[in-house]
Write a structure and sequence with these properties.
By secondary structure, the protein is an all-alpha fold. The protein contains 18 helices and no strands. The longest helix is centred in the middle third of the chain and has 37 residues.
């Protein structure tokens, strides 16, 4: 069974990557074609030069610095580049190409265990044609983030909290939203344990909650350690341990009441495409709660509210690039008739194709 399953995963993955490679020929290959925006502006600069010591004076990056980009992905790319001699963009593509099937498999195991049984043929067909997986394939940190998130989720589900804590630490070194995921997992674990011990006598309830309290504390401590390591590094480099947060002002990321940035972008007629993503994100999160994906939908909702309150930039990637988003969409699709599922597969594949071409053409519609 596992041999057939992995053969199917690798066949679908290789097919999509082959299509991307074929489409990228006019740009000189998939590495140069897909290294756009944050890849060329930030990640590859970190790989080649390290983190900036001061904000840039270059016209294109005036007042900006690459401190907002957490170190796990660029560090992995830099290490593999030094070991293989390949270029940074090509290493990023290869790294994510290797990790993506593992992310898909962990998603399948997790969803099959919690809400199974899941038909792996449909599941992986939906997964590898899902438009948001574009960001898992290009030189961005989404794939590494998805790997550590699903590793933490799968380990927590199996009560392997040392492994979950390690994944939580690495998750918090990958993206700033990692700590939100870790805190949500820890709180849900405590809440679930408290509900299970609700009928116990007071003394036994305290005893029953002792282990979950330690396990949740271990998760929080590991996640906090991950963020703290980067903060200590930034303090030594710039004198500002929160430089990763403060530099967000350079991209006009400022906290306002929820909804302000929707109004701002509509009245200024900027990033209207991102405004359209907001109701779609909220609809999927709502459906997640409706289908009892309570933990997963809460992770998405908290991440959404933090991102939504500071800016709409990249909000579609931050939410739709989370594996939990795909899980909820898949659960919704399973309620459809087979003919509509087939239509969705075709629509997903066509959207992924169009998004890939837009990305190769350096379109800001997907930024």
């Amino acid at each position: 069974m596992k041999t057939r399953l992995w053969a199917y995963i690798l066949f679908l993955h290789a097919t999509v990557m082959g299509c991307m490679a074929w489409l990228s020929r006019p740009w000189g290959g998939i590495g140069p074609a897909s290294c756009r925006w944050d890849c060329s502006d930030a990640y590859m600069r970190i790989v080649s030069q390290g983190y900036d010591r001061a904000p840039s004076l270059a016209p294109y990056w005036l007042g900006e610095a690459n401190w907002a980009f957490f170190p796990a992905f660029p560090s992995a790319v830099r290490t593999l580049r030094d070991l293989t001699g390949m270029s940074g963009p090509n290493v990023g593509i290869v790294l994510n190409a290797v990790l993506l099937p593992v992310v898909a498999y962990l998603c399948y195991l997790y969803q099959n265990r919690k809400w199974g049984p899941v038909d792996y043929r449909l599941y992986f067909l939906f997964f590898f044609t899902f438009p948001a997986t574009l960001w898992f394939r290009i030189q961005y940190s989404e794939c590494l983030f998805g790997l550590f998130l699903m590793g933490m989720a799968w380990a927590s589900l199996n009560r392997r909290f040392y492994a979950a804590s390690l994944c939580g630490l690495l998750l918090c070194l990958t993206r700033p939203t990692g700590i939100l995921c870790v805190l949500t997992f820890a709180i849900f674990h405590l809440f679930k344990s408290w509900k299970q011990a609700a009928d116990c006598p007071d003394r036994r309830r305290v005893q029953a909650l002792a282990a979950p309290l330690v396990e949740s504390g271990l998760l929080v401590m590991a996640g906090g350690t991950g963020v703290s390591v980067f903060m200590i590094y930034l303090y030594g480099l710039t004198g500002d341990s929160l430089a990763f947060s403060h530099i967000q002002v350079a991209w006009h990321r400022v906290f306002h009441f929820p909804g302000y940035w929707v109004w701002f972008n509509l009245t200024h007629r900027t990033h209207v495409n991102l405004v359209l993503m907001v109701p779609l994100d909220l609809l999927v999160i709502y459906k997640g709660f409706q289908k009892k994906f309570y933990l997963e939908a809460t992770v998405l909702l908290i991440t959404f509210m933090v991102a939504f309150s500071s800016s709409l930039l990249s909000i579609h990637r931050i939410i739709m690039g989370n594996p939990f988003f795909f899980m909820i969409v898949y659960a919704c699709l399973m309620d459809m008739r087979p003919v509509w599922r087939n239509v969705c597969i075709a629509l997903f594949a066509a959207t992924l194709l169009g998004a890939t071409l837009l990305w190769f053409h350096n379109s800001n519609l997907l930024y």
